[in-house]
Amino acid sequence: MVNDLPNVVKEAKCRLFVEDLKLYLEIGNQEDCEKLQTDQDRVVRVAWNDSNGLQYNTSKCLTITFSQARHPIVKNYKGPEVSMKKDMPDSYAEKRRRPRLLA
User: Fold this and answer.
1) Which helix H or strand E contains 64, and what residues bound it?
2) Biased composition, Basic and acidic residues: where in the chain (predicted)?
């Protein structure tokens, strides 16, 4: 079940919220990219198989990279239609640019 997912993930860190899972890992080199890919593969293979009734929702899968490096390490992760988001707005920064009065 969903609560067993942390046992499947070996290298990355994971966060669970209801039936959603976030995998994340600090990437310092290509080996780290492979570790994250391996954990993603484990989740797909072990956790989302037909025996437990969970479904892998590809429409909710994305890869988000946070970096201040001029040339961050970027990998195209393999999986069921995982999309890469290059420009995600920072909602906190957006709110600071357009302050509102709260009454």
Assistant:
1) strand 62-64
2) 83-94
Give the whole-angstrom CA distance, residue 36 versus residue 54.
21
Interior/surface letters 67-95, b for 16+ CB within 10 angstroms, e for the rest: eeeeeeeeeebeeeeeeeeeeeeeeeeee
Assess contact for 65 and 33: CB atoms under 8 A: no
Residues 6+ apart with CB under 8 A from 12: 23, 24, 25, 35, 36, 39
Nearest Cα neighbor of 19 from 70, 56, 44 is: 56
pTM of the predicted protein model = 0.69
Distances (CA, A) of 79 to 7, 44, 65: 20, 8, 17
| Cα gap 53→23, rounded to integer Å | 21
**Which tokens hold the place of 32?**
């780290």
Residue 9 has pLDDT above 50, yes or no: yes
- Model confidence at 29, pLDDT cuts 50, 70, 90, reads very high
